[in-house]
Amino acid sequence: MKEEFEKLAASGKIRAADVDTLVQLATEGFCMHKSWGFGQIKTVDVVLGKMSVDFDGRPGHAIDLAFAPKILAPIAKDHIEARKATDMDGLKEMAALHHDEVIKVIVDSYGNLATTDKVKDVLVPDVVEADDYKKWWETARREMKKGGHFKVPTKKTEAIGYQSEDIPLQERLLRDFTGARGLKARLPIAVDLGKSAGDLDDKAATADVTLTKLNEEINSHARTQPALALEAVMVRDDLAQALGAEVTEGSPAESAVWAGEPKLSEIIPAMPVARQHRALESYQGTTENWPQDFLNLITQVPARLVGDCVTLLSEGGHKDEFKEELNSLINHHGATGELLLWLAKEKSGDYAALLTPEAFGAMLSAIERETSDEKRASKLRDFLLTDAKFFDLITSGVDVEVVKDVVRAIQMSTCFEGMDKRSVLGKIVKAHPEIQSFITHGDKDKEEKKSVDSSLIVSWDSLERKKNDLEELMQKRIPANSKEIEIAREYGDLRENAEFKAAKEQQKVLMALQAEWESDIDRARGINYADADTSTANVGTRVTVTNLTNNEREEYSLMGAWDGDPDNNRISYLTPLGQAIFGSEPGAEVEVQLGDETRRMRVDSIAPLAS
């Protein structure tokens, strides 16, 4: 078709520079759109100057030949997306039998963009089911590492490399190890060497190179980066064991790192999660004061690490000291949210007796105190909102007056708002039905005032739309986000896990949106615009005013909270202009501040919207 495209270029219908691109599009038959993704070219009509492309959800989409090169990139017939469109069964069979071959197709298709994330995006769920992917990827990684062609990156954001030369596994890993820039980059490769020990040709030679280098760098990092040095000692010891080698006498040990007296509260959280418990155990052997150090640490670390400290304290015979310290922190409201979160989760363990109304008061204080750190505060708050047994447990067997004190604390607290507060109170009522009347009576005046001061006037249609939006949020968007978090969590170290952080940030946005919409719906008062009272400017009326500055007449439709359309002079009654007009009678003069302008208006007439 090149001649036909060249004729179009000669007649000025397309650019000469686009001829080759159009030839590729027409010949290969597949393309990628900047926004719509993969497309299959069905027809090319040089007479009409158009091509027809099937996109997902847009079959038979017509595109001008002159415009196509600007928005479409041609892709080859053997591109992974093209093969998914033309030979899905073949791809599924390849994925089941030859994992590395599928990876090779993706690398050839995407080049430097072929990251591990891209592999997952391409294969799930079309080629590999989401539930099977983790196991599939582990097998694929083993196949790639055993073969001599692939370079498997240690970070998900790096591209998978492929080389035609078949380099033996040991040579490839040792080359990566020695070529890594710095100890931090070298450790994951050392871990890979340990996992691949069974496939190495010369374990002794590998041990000689790697253990010597690690010892050198541990010594140089022990004082400046003790957390990294401690991790490196553990990696070195694990690698030596996997290779069947001995750590030579005089090599740096964990005790050497602790000898520099680094701060325990800085070292442990900086360690990879999988090695933190082991780091605590190693610290125990360095000082007799470790129990007190652990008691100090529990107010500085996440809930999971609190659990590790408590386990080691209990095993070391210091359970009573921990109980005494925790009880003191609760009574003086000095416990952190993370420490109290651990206690709340341990409700059936040895420390259940400490879960009392006083402990709940300490939790409210911790949440309020840590509000500036939303991530920390929300973890404990979210647990209290979602755990079905917590409030039943802390109020079990206590006097009804104590339960009322708990209710008052919740009502006065800023930790829970709107539907969240109602949910918490509902859990207490479920455990103690006898206080229902206390809550109802105590809230009566406040609820009546709230209905006047903070209700939202909305149309029935907009209220139904808002409810549908909330249902979609709770039934689809939030569960999808939760699944993303679980998948991202499987990627490893959460400190450097961009996918996990992004998914958790999105969770905060979605949960805040849920709370906002639930509160809005709870406050909403639906009305029928046709029933609007036209004696004053009410929601559902059309108000004609005169701008007293220039004597021009203006007309506004006064709408509910969610029906505003300023471009068509349909204004929500909650806007500054809407508030100025709302409740006014014909003849009344009103004033409104709009930006830097103070506008004075006279209300001339009020009519129903439909007239």
Describe the structure.
The chain is flat. The model is unreliable at 443-453 (pLDDT under 50). Helix 15 (273-284) runs parallel beside helix 17. Strands 4-3-2-1-5 form a 5-stranded antiparallel sheet, with helices on both faces. The chain has a 5-stranded mixed sheet with strand order 12-11-10-14-13. A two-stranded antiparallel sheet has the order 6-7. With 611 residues, it is an alpha+beta fold. Strand 13 (589-594) and strand 14 (597-608) form a beta hairpin. The longest helix is centred in the C-terminal third of the chain and has 30 residues, at 460-489. Among the domains are: 2-75; 81-162, no CATH class; 456-527, Transcription elongation factor, GreA/GreB, N-terminal domain (Helix Hairpins); 529-608, Chitinase A, domain 3.
Briefly characterize the structure.
Helix content is 56%, strand content 13%. By secondary structure, the chain is α+β, with helices and mostly antiparallel strands.
Instruction: Work out the helix count.
Output: 28
List the uncertain runs.
443-453
The class by helix and strand makeup works out as alpha+beta
Largest sheet: 5 strands, antiparallel
Count the strands? 14
Mean model confidence by pLDDT: 88
Classify the beta-strand content into a percent band: 5-15%
Separation of the first and last Cα atoms: 62 Å
Rg measurement, Å: 34 Å
**Helix fraction bin:** 55-70%
| Shape call | flat
